[in-house]
Amino acid sequence: MKNAGDMQVQVIDHPLIQHKITLMRKKETGSMDFRQLLEEITMLMGYEITRDLPLEEVDIETPICKMKGKQISGKKLGIVPVLRAGLGMVQGMLNLIPLAKVGHIGLYRDPKTLKPVEYYCKLPDVADRDFIIVDPMLATGGSASEAITLLKEKGIQSIKLMCLVAAPTGVKKVNKDHPDVRIYVGALDDSLNEEGYIVPGLGDAGDRIFGTK
Ligand code: PRP
Ligand code: URA
Fold it and tell me: For atom 13 of ligand 1, which residue has the closest CA?
């Protein structure tokens, strides 16, 4: 894991993640494999992102003797996918944290203005809960920044952002708008093209997950 230059972002560049992102980038990779790889990478990234979860001691007994074991303490977690593409990361996170609650934020990027348009928001109870927003793509950063703002407006203070592929523009926007939010990405790409797609990127994540065009 490393920080990237002047940007506040942690690139989780484990070899398995790099390998699997390469497979996802290939244009010939179909939806079934794309979804499977996204779930696998989400689990690998989720392992790192949950590294600071608090532990507590618990008295247990092995077949040999009594001991003090460790368990995740009662911290409440919320996973919030940004629809649609963020849905592809939910199961990976739930595989790791089965008791997490799942909220949904519906945003789409207007193709002309590239600004996010909200169409849905449903969150679990937010009191004392830490939230992880998941979305495969951080391009201009408009959608992620808006999603974070929506959570903050509900009184949520502890927010992490987890994306598969990011462009520097998006990282810088979220850093500027929400300096308190830690960003985790699997790859930090070069730039955006004129349509706001990440270069080299992997294309339209939602379309590739769901087989739409
Ligand atoms: C994609 C992606 C992000 C957003 C990133 O969603 O899943 O939410 O674009 O772009 P930005 O950083 O420039 O805001 P999209 O708007 O294509 O909607 P979809 O997931 O429903 O296809
Ligand atoms: N949304 C995507 O799905 N892909 C990009 O490259 C940018 C935004």
Answer: 140
pLDDT in tens, 29-62: 999 999 999 999 999 999 999 999 999 999 999 9
pLDDT(1) > 70: no
What is the number of other CB atoms lying within 10 angstroms of the CB of residue 147?
29
Q: Which domains does the chain have, with CATH numbers?
A: 12-208 (3.40.50.2020)
Instruction: Name the pTM for this structure.
Output: 0.95
> Mapped to the 3 state alphabet, what secondary structure does 3-53 carry?
EECCEEEEECCCHHHHHHHHHHHCCCCCHHHHHHHHHHHHHHHHHHHHHHC
Residue having the nearest C-alpha atom to atom 3 of ligand 2 = 204
CB-count exposure of residue 113 (10 Å: 0-12, 13-18, 19+): exposed
Q: Is 204 a catalytic residue?
A: yes
Determine which one of 113, 128, 149, 190 is catalytic.
Answer: 113
Any atom of ligand 2 within 6 Å of the Cβ of 198: yes
CA pair distance 182, 184, nearest whole angstrom: 7
